[in-house]
Write a structure and sequence with these properties.
Layout lengths: L1 H13 L1 H22 L2 E2 L11 H12 L7 E7 L2 H16 L5 E5 L5 H6 L6 H13 L1 H9 L3 H17 L4 H19 L8 H6 L9 E8 L10 H13 L9 E6 L1 H13 L2 H20 L2 H26 L2 E2 L5 H27 L2 H28 L7 H22 L1 H9 L14 H9 L1 H18 L5 E2 L11 H10 L9 E5 L2 H12 L4 E5 L9 H19 L10 H21 L4 H18 L2 H25 L12 H5 L8 E7 L6 H14 L4 E2 H35 L2 H18 L4 E2 L5 H21 L9 H18 L7 H29 L9 H10 L1
Parallel strand pairs: 1-6, 7-12
Antiparallel strand pairs: 2-4, 2-5, 3-4, 8-10, 8-11, 9-10
Length: 870
């Protein structure tokens, strides 16, 4: 093979113009094809084969409930429940009018049904407390319903002062309300925007965070040809929120986006953040390292040009084979550059050494091909075999990567022995004036051989320690841990996980019918790992009869009050100011009538605030109106709806609710919520295990996360075993001696064991085949040189080639460590540290293991004759 490659190199060098023309034509054709057909499928659901059992269940559930797929969750938090409702209703209406961007828009916790029946879902005590508070507030509500303005509020306060004078016992109840109003008026007069809740004013209870939070679920129109498929939809949502003055950062309302679509899109944005700078620094560092290795810009240019041609041709092959790239297979470019540059460095460094020995360009080109060509070919074949081993796995993303990267290694080898030497002829790099190797390392090599047993013993200790630590190997299957917590979608998701009622880490179970769903839900709720389970029956309130009785009693008094026959026309600013002064006087009189009481203090404070606001500019009164009146209107509308509550049965539930819980074929959905930290891996394992004992067909995010982790790990284990076997078989055929095969594999095993001591995850596990490929290549280079009789491997030019190959590869992949994306950074960290282990194992352990140079291995034909004679 060495002689064959030498002849190929010689022919290419002699007919370099033809080879360069053919290479250029092939490059142009491949570039044109790639440019026309380039496409990246960003649908992460396609990365794992649909034939896997858990994926089949997931797809079956998606088919049964298509509205649960590819969602954007719009989370609206506000300072008051009224403001949250008002903002959510306005935003949902606006989004529903944009069919270009959204296939469906709905509110899972709002709408006509919940406006009317919402009070029935509260506890019996809460219903009693709320209805009593509303009845007590009847005079206030009546006045405000007739005149929902600041003028009406002044009239209502006048009535309140009269009532307080008549019933001194109610002064304690009234004081907190007056204090809240006083604070709102003071802030308005000071030019600030107050936060005011009518619900809190009437009930006297502060609203919990969940009461001030609303949701809108959006199913967007996605473009999987774009790196961010949901970008148009998320942009439309943010634009609508801006036009409605609901921008994040306002003190009243914050609109945030999360869900599968924003999570995926913002992950790409995180990857792109700083990527251009990192890439520029990486390219600069690579060029500098290439120059340091080769000491000739012409050699550097030849490697870069040949590498570019190989990369373009490999890209065209990938698109031709699969139609488009996926989110993992696109990494073939990084693998190609990392390993392809190694081939170029090996050849060019050897060319420099031969050029120093002979001085002739053509002789150096041919001899370099003869010396390293076979090693490059064997390395390319071994690496390709390792990549092809991923083809039969269920991890489709990596299997496609394996095919493209494996073929890329063959292309890189062909380019290295054909186009690279052809380019060196017209470029004519200068001759060498000094030896290319590292003569100063000769004492190091002799020291290692003299202390061979100690070095090998140290390597054995490292291997044994690594094996002992293997049971503690940690694989983090939670993809959320690989995302930046700084981006909005992840931060919002983590926030939702704090509440058991809003966590997205729920399990979905399909039951044959509603009755079976109810029975299974009750059994699931008995599990300690489960907080609660929701079915369609959950939307039928409990204890309806006594609750409705309380609501009906309140409605008898409140409905005439809330629905007056006539509403006053809005008052002008002057009239509003005069009403404030009149009410301020009434409050002052009440304060004087009940001195030294909490009510007197509150009334006096409110009186002074109203006098100040009445004398202020109209803008300050308008600010008070904006803070008080829209919330008042929202509260009145909610009360009118709540007083219309009626009995609820399954048949009465709206179609949009039934659609999310009962499939077209009658199967019913159960949503199971975890009873603990939904972001804790150990807790999720227990949760999934417990639920699947009762419902083996369960699906949902926690199940998918764990099953995909198992699928990926299984794929890498299977591919690792196949690759290991394939490489051993290939080495056995090529090297023909079992001991040489073991010597070649020993450094790979050692560095691999050290690498597996690092934590693994979905992202950095992809680095393992690359490290195996580099380790195989380095070992093959040294073993082939040792078999050829080369003495003192460390001082040779081969060490220079291996060292700079490792440095360039480490620089290209180590730059990923600087990424703002935690998963990519973990990959860069694993690559950099593991590559260091590989380099130490190759440079120190392998030469020591090989020992003294062996007598050169004769060609196969000669070996056969010698065996026959023997």
């Amino acid at each position: 093979m060495s002689a064959l490659i030498a002849r190929v190199v010689a022919v290419c060098a002699t007919r370099h113009r033809l080879v360069i023309m053919v290479g250029a034509a092939l490059c142009v054709a491949a570039f044109a094809y790639a440019a026309r057909n380039i496409a990246i499928d960003t649908d992460t659901a396609k990365l794992i084969s649909e034939d896997v059992a858990w994926r089949k269940r997931e797809l079956a559930f998606d088919t049964a409930f298509p509205r649960r797929v590819d969602l954007i969750a719009v989370v609206i938090d506000a300072a008051t429940a009224e403001r949250a409702e008002q903002a959510t209703a306005a935003l949902a209406a606006r989004l529903s009018s944009e069919p270009r961007y959204f296939r469906a828009v709905w509110r899972p916790d709002g709408g006509t049904f919940f406006d009317r029946e919402g009070l029935l879902f509260e506890s019996m005590d809460e219903v009693a407390r709320t209805t009593q508070a509303l009845i007590a507030a009847q005079p206030l509500l009546g006045t405000l319903a007739v005149d929902p303005s600041l003028r009406g509020l002044m009239d209502a306060l006048s009535l309140v002062t009269q009532g307080a004078s008549a019933e001194p016992a109610r002064s304690k109840e009234l004081a907190p309300a007056l204090q809240r109003l006083a604070e709102a008026f003071e802030l308005s007069a000071a030019g600030q925007s107050p936060v005011f809740s009518w619900r809190v004013l009437i009930t006297g209870h502060a609203a919990e965070a969940r009461e001030r939070r609303r949701f809108i679920l959006v199913q967007p129109v996605l473009d999987y040809g774009a790196l961010q498929p949901g970008e148009a939809a998320t942009t439309a949502i943010r634009k609508a929120a801006h036009e409605l003055q609901l921008d994040a950062g306002q003190p009243r309302v914050v609109v945030r986006l999360t869900g599968p679509v924003p999570l995926a899109d913002e992950e790409f944005a995180t990857l792109a953040d700083g990527a251009a700078l990192n890439a520029s620094l990486m390219v600069f560092a690579l060029v500098v390292l290439l120059w340091a290795a080769l000491r000739s810009w012409r050699l550097v240019l030849a490697i870069i040009l040949s590498l570019a041609v190989g990369l373009i041709v490999t890209t065209a092959f990938g698109l031709l084979a699969f139609g488009r790239l996926n989110l993992i297979s696109v990494a073939f470019a990084v693998l190609f550059v990392g390993l392809g540059i190694d081939f170029g460095i090996q050849y060019c460094v050897c060319h420099r050494a031969k050029r120093y020995a002979s001085g002739d360009l053509y002789v150096a080109l041919r001899r370099a091909g003869e010396e390293v060509g076979a090693a490059l070919g064997l390395a390319a074949a071994a690496i390709a075999a390792g990549f092809y081993a991923f083809l039969p796995t269920e991890y489709r993303g990596v299997s496609e990567l394996g095919v493209i990267a494996g073929t890329g290694m063959i292309i890189a080898f062909i380019v290295t022995i054909t186009l690279l030497p052809s380019l060196l002829v017209p470029l004519r790099p200068p001759g060498e004036k000094a030896t290319v190797g590292y003569p100063r390392l000769a004492p190091v090599g002799r020291f290692l051989l003299e202390h061979r047993r100690a070095v090998l013993a140290l390597a054995a200790i490292v291997a044994a320690g690594s094996v002992a630590l293997l049971p503690r190997l940690h694989f983090d299957f939670n993809p959320l841990h690989l995302k930046s917590a700084k981006v909005e979608s992840v931060a919002t998701l983590l926030d939702l996980m704090q509440d058991p009622g809003t966590t997205p880490n729920t399990i979905d179970v399909l039951a044959a019918s509603l009755d079976e769903a109810a029975q299974l839900a009750r059994r699931l709720e008995e599990l300690p790992e489960v907080d609660h389970a929701v079915t369609l029956q959950s939307f039928v309130p409990e204890q309806q009869e006594p609750k409705l009785a309380l609501i009906e009693d309140a409605a008898l008094l409140l409905e005439p009050v809330l629905n007056p026959g006539q509403v006053k026309t809005p008052a002008g600013d002057d009239e509003t100011a005069r009403a404030m002064l009149r009410t301020a006087q009434s409050l002052e009189q009440m304060s004087a009538a009940q001195p030294q009481t909490a009510l007197a203090a509150a009334a006096g404070r409110l009186s002074r605030a109203m006098e100040t606001l009445a004398a202020a500019e109209p803008a300050q009164r308008e600010r008070a109106r904006d803070a008080l009146i829209p919330g008042l209107s929202t509260m009145l509308e909610q009360l009118r709806a709540a007083m219309q509550a009626r009995p609820v049965t399954l048949a009465d539930l709206p179609a949009e609710i039934k659609r999310d819980w009962v499939a077209a074929d009658g199967r019913a959905r159960i949503e199971v919520y975890p009873g603990g930290d939904a972001n804790d891996n150990a807790m999720l394992r227990r949760f999934v295990s417990a639920v699947r004992q009762l419902a083996p067909e369960a699906t949902g995010a926690p199940v998918s996360i764990q099953e995909s982790g198992r699928t990926i790990v299984r794929a890498f284990v299977e591919a690792g075993v196949l690759a290991f076997v394939a490489i051993i078989v290939l080495l056995a055929v090529a090297l023909r001696r079992p001991t040489d095969v073991l010597l070649t594999m020993a450094p790979i095993v050692l560095s691999g064991l050290a690498t597996l001591g690092l934590p693994l995850n979905f992202e950095n596990i992809i680095a393992l085949p690359l490290l195996a490929g580099i380790g195989v290549a380095f070992s093959i280079y040294y073993v082939m040189a040792w078999r050829a009789g080369q003495r003192e491997l460390l001082p040779s030019s081969l060490t220079r080639a291996v060292l700079f190959s490792a440095l360039t590869t480490g620089t290209s992949f180590g730059s990923l460590w600087l990424s703002h994306h935690p998963g990519t950074a973990s990959m860069g960290r694993l690559l950099a540290l593991s590559l260091a282990c590989t380099l130490v194992s190759t440079l120190l352990f392998l030469p020591t293991l090989l020992g003294a140079a062996r007598r050169p291995i004769p060609p196969a034909s000669e070996s056969g004759r010698n065996d026959a004679q023997a």
